[in-house]
């Protein structure tokens, strides 16, 4: 995961503590360094504004995440009845054109999920669970052959399967 996205999730997790520490430091500056009260109030006000912005950003990204999560799960659920029996085949029996198209639809969904993860919209723990499921399905002899051919097209946003 890119550093910027790791930092974002870290900030969203700990911004409350960071603001508390910064406010405490501002209070110490007031008493120890004898800074003017107006300077300290400016610093504290700025910190509270940053905390408010981060909280609003976190809530907005949570809303976006919920929409993406719901849509991806609905799309996967719609494919489940068709995809699971194919993935449980023990050997590569020929696939029909319809089965290949369904597998490609699934791979497209996986690629989109990975793109959302790379952009920082999917929580790392959710991505890990989705990725584990993808690896299980892709390990099927029938599906892995379709994946190998599709991967050569350069599509799927560098999906690591």
Number of beta strands: 0
Quaternary state of the chains? single chain
- Using only C-alpha atoms, the radius of gyration works out to 24 Å
The end-to-end distance, rounded to whole angstroms, is 15 Å
- What is the helical fraction, as a range of percent? over 70%
What percentage of the residues does DSSP assign to strands (E)? under 5%
Sequence stretches where pLDDT stays below 50 over 5 or more residues: none
Shape: rod-shaped
What structural class should be given to the helix and strand makeup?
mainly alpha
Helical run tally? 5
Summed up, the domain count is 1
Give the SSE order as H and E letters.
HHHHH
Mean pLDDT: 89
Largest sheet: none
Write the layout of secondary structure elements.
Elements: H1 3-32, H2 37-87, H3 97-118, H4 124-138, H5 141-151
Helix pairs in contact: 1-2, 2-3, 3-4, 3-5
List its traits.
single chain, 161 residues, mainly alpha, rod-shaped
Account of the 3D structure:
This protein is an all-alpha fold and 161 residues long. 80% of the residues lie in helices and 0% in strands.
Task: Give a brief description.
This protein has helices at residues 3-32, 37-87, 97-118, 124-138, 141-151.
């Amino acid at each position: 995961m890119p550093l910027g996205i790791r930092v974002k999730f870290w900030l969203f997790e700990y911004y409350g503590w960071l603001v508390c520490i910064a406010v405490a430091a501002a209070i110490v500056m007031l008493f120890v360094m004898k800074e003017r009260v107006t300077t300290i109030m400016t610093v504290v006000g700025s910190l509270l504004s940053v905390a408010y912005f981060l909280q609003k950003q976190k809530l907005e990204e949570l809303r976006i995440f919920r929409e993406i999560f719901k849509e991806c799960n609905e799309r996967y659920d719609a494919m489940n009845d068709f995809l699971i029996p194919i993935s449980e085949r023990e050997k590569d029996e020929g696939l029909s054109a319809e089965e290949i198209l369904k597998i490609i639809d699934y791979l497209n969904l996986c690629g989109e999920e990975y793109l959302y993860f790379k952009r920082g919209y999917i929580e790392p723990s959710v991505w890990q669970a989705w990725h584990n499921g993808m690896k299980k399905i892709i390990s099927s002899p029938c599906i892995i052959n379709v994946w190998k051919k599709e991967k050569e097209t350069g599509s799927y946003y560098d999906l690591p399967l």
